[in-house]
Write a structure and sequence with these properties.
The chain is mainly β. It has one domain. The protein has two helices and nine strands; from the N terminus they run H-E-E-E-E-E-E-E-H-E-E. The strands form two sheets. The chain has a five-stranded antiparallel sheet with strand order 1-2-3-4-5. A four-stranded antiparallel sheet has the order 7-6-8-9. A hairpin with an 8-residue loop joins strand 2 and strand 3. The protein is globular and about 60 Å long.
């Protein structure tokens, strides 16, 4: 039960945080020089990783958050925009352990999959982890309004053998126009 509960806690945390993607508190501090204006908070969106920008942790400043699978650990990496380490999945907080798979699916405002048709693997607008994303071509990333996350965890039980638990979360972004 611990493995399943840890995965559930991690999924709840990522769901809560991702709803805040695109919220930039700098835009509300009265100092126009601090304003953040970008076409989309989605920096990287693949079938196995997602990097978004905003104040997802309630710290009062915007950061990039990368959600990815590092071996069997589901990680959240927090960092600054344009810094390579921010987009690399070998550091950061562990959200869940014993993860066998993670899947991100993206949908536009009409609930049509992006890309359409969805074929794996994919990287929206050709952006992938391990590199600083380009924000020049944004066609697919600006279309995304909803993401479905599926995480599977494995528990090896002496009595019952290996057991797989799958959790799914459907997230609508609050701060996308």
């Amino acid at each position: 039960m611990n493995i399943q509960q840890n995965a559930r806690v991690g999924m709840d945390e990522i769901s809560r945080e991702m709803r805040m993607a695109g919220y930039y508190p700098e835009n509300f501090d009265g100092n126009g020089a601090n304003d953040i204006i970008i076409a989309t908070p989605l920096q990287i969106a693949t079938n196995t990783a997602l990097a978004v920008r905003g104040d997802m942790d309630g710290s009062g400043t915007s950061s990039v958050f990368l959600y990815c699978l590092d071996g069997t650990t589901f990680r959240r990496v927090k960092g600054a925009t344009g810094v390579l380490a921010t987009y690399t999945c070998n550091t950061g907080d562990a959200l869940a352990d014993n993860v066998t798979s993670i899947r991100f699916s993206y949908f536009d405002g009409a609930n049509v999959s992006v890309p359409n048709p969805e074929a794996t693997p994919f990287q929206l607008d050709g952006q992938n982890i391990g590199a600083i994303p380009s924000l020049v071509t944004l066609t697919q990333r600006t279309a995304v309004r909803r993401v479905v996350i599926t995480v599977s965890v494995r528990k090896d039980s002496p009595e019952h053998g290996p057991q797989i638990y799958t959790l799914t979360s459907d997230i609508r972004f609050r701060n996308l126009s």
